Amino acid sequence: MTDDDKLIDDQSNVDEDELDRRIRELGLEESPSEQARAEGDKIDDEFESRLKALEDKAQAHRQVRNNQKREAERKQTSDRESARGLGVGLSIAYTIIGMPIVGLIIGWILDRGTESQTYKGLGVVVGMVLGIAAGLAILAKSNRQP
Predict the structure, then answer these.
(1) 11, 39, 120, 132 - which has most CB atoms within 10 Å?
(2) What span, in angstroms and rounded, lies between the C-alpha atoms of 146 and 144?
(3) Do 131 and 100 meet the contact criterion of CB atoms below 8 Å apart?
């Protein structure tokens, strides 16, 4: 019987540390438990690196989403301001064009009643003055509002 056989026969109840010591005595590089620990450490390191990569990817997607959200808000604000400016501009244009037309109609009615030609011209001039004044008032009001 060899020394190895004696070691095995002598103690059948041997704990893990004793087994590790005996395996090292036999000349093996690592015991099974050390190999298992090394393999577990390797798996843990791989898991940590994958988790870190996943976190980095999630952070990059959050950044992209936040940039898209800011761009959408900026565009919405710009569109809102453009629509408001368009509304004010059209109101001023309709006022400047409409008031002389209203003056012309009133002058035409007065001319028909009096059988003269003076009130049409006078109505147009008064309508232009009132239209420009109303247009400036609309512009001043729109500049005061936020």
Answers:
(1) 120
(2) 7
(3) yes
* Amino acid code (one letter) for 39: E
CA 66, chain centre distance (Å): 4
pLDDT tens-digit readout, 72-105: 999 998 888 888 889 999 999 999 999 999 999 9
Neighbouring CB atoms inside 10 A of 110's CB total: 15
C-beta of residue 125 within 8 angstroms of C-beta of residue 103: yes
Provide the sign of the torsion angle of the four alpha carbons 72, 73, 76, 77, taken in this order.
Answer: negative
CA distance to 10, 30, 33, 130, per residue, from 20 (Å): 16, 8, 7, 105
